[in-house]
């Protein structure tokens, strides 16, 4: 046949299995995110720079004898790193997370997603993984890298043997910082079609509750007012994990609060997605 | 008879985009189909007529007066836009009634007019339900009702049949034709050419902000002579008929259709062809099953002029 | 038999959307018609496995609509009516993404996306963000994403709404090509009967949740033997009176057409005799058929 058919051809290639179908959503979501130059320059880059600063400190401590005698790199060092990155966790949630589901609701994307062989769980997994990866990239990964850096560079050979548990603490604390926070932003994102509203609601919880809690504590002298503050709970748990807590037994309440927040958020997300009516 | 709408060198632009480009036209009463591809300037033109936009250059006069910022002619116009925005919590009747009140009618009169308009669009059974519960076709009907409730002289309907089911479309077409027969002026903008054809023969075709053609669609067709007229003839002696017809100068081609007994003749003077056809048929005892001109319609006019 | 519904009923709360619907669709191109609220949208949702029926069973390509909905969706492409897209993506990126959501490997999804976009005649626009597309382009993208995984059934919901005549014709020609030359089954839900007549062979009419009619369009349009619509130019009264003289009854319709019924023993030649004698032009002779519209109105009105 000298003249080839330029029109529609059938396709009978092999399909990939369903188990990692959600990964396509994640990859695409990350690509779209990283195309946003303002996001990369003003949020990701500073987060990475902070990591580099801490890395530099470790290097400096281990290389210059002036610092070596100071017991600078303690568990608290790693704890401080994680807590300082939490600022960027919040920013990433606001800029990357606020529209993740809201934009799909607004642009009627569910009509497309749900007419494909994709379950609602796939969708939620895919979207969550975007946040998890993005946030893990600035807390967990750099945290572990810092730990490894110091373990390798340290003149004190007992560091790793005695403080190996810091590895676990960094992992756990990263998850504690990431999971509730990303659940909250995804929950708000699923509740509205406007990424602006979800961002605002999120900021009320993240930045507003510390203010309200502090006011209640100072003005009304309420002892439990601290538990309202989002980051205070995080600090509580972090200190406990890194062995630097100064008050006893209050981390139970903080853990409970975080678990409740996460569960409520997940329930909200699931119910909102389930209820999307795709064909009018 | 004064034209209902009159423009002179009318121009309107948005930044660098030229929406209406030096349009001069007079529109008289009756039903007129406003056609054009997407982006041609139809919506801009309509908004200029209704007074929602001010001309950047030139004049537009509606019902004898300038349309921009002119409240005195507003109640003589009815506008059914293509946008689907309502007060979802109002009932259909409420909506039409309150819009009728805006014309300064007494409450009882507004009620009466609203009920009549609702009946005309066949929404009487649903008038007391909330608009939020209406289907698309029902919303469209209520929109139509509010545009005719005050019995305006000039009505402008932008895609009025959008979303209606076939039966609704038929009754709407009938209604529009009837309003035209009763002496109202109606401008209907639509993409569905065969529906415009069912409503009227008068069209205004615009593209790129300029007028391409105005008037009776058949006259326009006849003037488009770079596209000769096709006439389809289905008869028992197709080849024989073809051989006779090609002897005439105005016949450009005669094509035999291999699949049936039909013949497609291209002519630059259709009138001459039709004049001599009875004689040929009778003298040669040809039996014609069907005869029609497939491109003497709005679709062809549109295609040939817009491309 | 590509779709089989057996006594399917679906209600939303108190509202019965589909009422004991039993139907068989054997394939090809089928039009889906019905007044607003008839159950067409519910029907589509059921095919996509988005709703579980309260009673009855259904199969698409032999797959159960409740337990195998993901497999059904693998074989179905849906072209939604409403505006829908995913923000931040180019046309080709979007279509390829949709392919991956169906399980296509990455490289194949990209190659296939380009091929489909070529087929629907989208050139350089495919590299632009979808948010910048005109309405016609958005419709094409919707069609492309439904075809990327090579479905066996294409569901189109009002595919030509809002398009200008040229765009409509292009879309309908694509649908016709896909259905007739490429062998993909089509279900076209539309209010525009000419669209359905142009592209489909069969039709299903729903009303208030029930199946009213299902059948071949040509069969449903019975031919009125020997009824014609005539258009003339000339002395109309003379023409009509001479018709009556030879026994042909004649009505004038809207649009200046004459409707006549020819008795068995008279041919159209008689008309031309009269025209020749009186210097009248006959410009149109068409045998009238029931249109799909007549079928529809009779079906709906008859209940």
* Overall number of domains of chain A: 1
* Strands of chain A, count: 0
CATH topology of the largest domain in chain B: Rossmann fold
The gyration radius over C-alpha positions of chain A equals 23 Å
Name the CATH superfamily classification of the largest domain in chain B: P-loop containing nucleotide triphosphate hydrolases
Low-pLDDT residue spans of chain B: none
Q: Please give the alpha-carbon distance between the first and last residues of chain A.
A: 47 Å
Shape of chain B: elongated
Average of the residue pLDDT scores of chain B:
88
Give a verbal description of the structure:
- The complex is a heterotrimer of chains A (280), B (307) and C (303).
- Chain A is mostly helical.
- In chain A, α2 packs parallel to α8.
- Helices cover 73% and strands 0% of the residues of chain A.
- Chain A has helices at residues 21-34, 37-63, 65-68, 75-97, 102-106, 110-113, 120-138, 140-153, 158-163, 165-191, 195-220, 230-241, 251-274.
- Chain A has one domain (21-274).
- Chain B is an alpha/beta fold and 307 residues long.
- Chain B has 2 domains: 5-221, Rossmann fold (3-Layer(aba) Sandwich), CATH 3.40.50.300; 226-306, Alpha-Beta Plaits (2-Layer Sandwich).
- The two termini of chain B are 35 Å apart.
- Chain B is built from 11 helices and 14 strands.
- In chain C, β4 and β5 (63-64) form a beta hairpin.
- Chain C is globular.
- Chains in contact: A-C, B-C.
- The interface between B and C is large, with 45 and 44 residues.
